[in-house]
Amino acid sequence: MNIRALKHFLSLAESLHFGRASEECHISVSALSRNIRQLEEELGVVLFNRDNRTVTLTQEGQKFVEYARETSSQWNLIRHELTGNSDQLKGEISLYGSVTASYSFLYELLRRFRVTHPSIEIKLRTGDPEHAIAHILDGKEDITIAARPAILPRNLAFKPIAISPLLFIAPLEQQLPNVPTTAPVSLEEWSKIPMILSESGVSRVHVDDWFHSHGITPKIYAQVTGNEAIVSMVSLGFGIGVVPKIVLDNSPLVDRIKVLDVLPKLEPYDIGLFTLKKNLKNPMVEAFWDLIKEEA
């Protein structure tokens, strides 16, 4: 068994797709399949269930994921310690963030990080912000950028970057009679308006708290993952939505919606970097973490 085999296994375990995993690992599908079979032979267990359509982890495979992630992390640490006399950090770190986070914050951070640490390979994954912290807690990524929840898990470190207001948004022009382009006044008006909200996450918690504090039972038209989708649906006139200001600032549809002047305003949320506290022992993670310190 070697570290490359573990990386191939982890890539397939995360994507559950031989084609995507082979592209990420820069090898052919047949070579990846061969490497996985060899790994299974060495372990004496089947790690993946495969058929013509799907790939899933077996129970043994799920257990082996934890070992593979920990071993890969320890490999990076010991390699750095053994080459500690080198002037430059070498290795790989993985980051996760939403598309909006990539535009708003990660672009400048990655640019500066690349200039300072050109020998560190960066693996960036984008996806729904609601899944960001779970990716860190599950060990799938080293660092993520996301909104801070009210309760922070003890094993998680957080470094704030910015505060983003949450905004009620409506279509620029009224397209349906029950979707206004101005802020509702009465509780009765609010309860009749179709709302487009995040399925989960910090923004949904803040919205639910706002409605609850006003004694309003919202009429939910759609629950979606990804704030960008909320802007799209609102621009089409399907309802009123709630999104962070940073999402709106980076949306190509910003000219098709309007911000409603709703009082009292929704509680804003803190946006920042997350990592496991133990990951801060990794000099590459620490180097990226310190980029924010330089801006303070």
Tell me about this structure:
The protein is an alpha/beta fold. The chain has three domains: 1-85, Orthogonal Bundle (Arc Repressor Mutant, subunit A), CATH 1.10.10.10; 86-162 and 269-296, D-Maltodextrin-Binding Protein, domain 2, CATH 3.40.190.10; 166-267, Periplasmic binding protein-like II (D-Maltodextrin-Binding Protein, domain 2). 44% of the residues lie in helices and 23% in strands. Strands 4-3-5-12-6 form a five-stranded mixed beta sheet. The chain has a five-stranded mixed beta sheet with strand order 9-8-10-7-11, with helices on both faces. Strands 1-2 form a two-stranded antiparallel ribbon. β1 and β2 (55-57) form a beta hairpin. It is elongated. The two termini are 44 Å apart. 29% of the residues are buried. The mean pLDDT is 88.
As a whole number of angstroms, the C-alpha radius of gyration is 22 Å
Q: How many separate domains make up the residues?
A: 3
Summarize model confidence as the mean pLDDT. 88
For the record, give the distance between the C-alpha atoms at the N and C termini, rounded to a whole number.
44 Å
Q: What structural category arises from helix and sheet content?
A: alpha/beta
Order of helices and strands: HHHEEHEHEHEEEHEHEHEHEEH
CATH-assigned homologous superfamily of the largest domain:
Periplasmic binding protein-like II
The major sheet is characterized as: 5 strands, mixed
Point out poorly predicted stretches. none
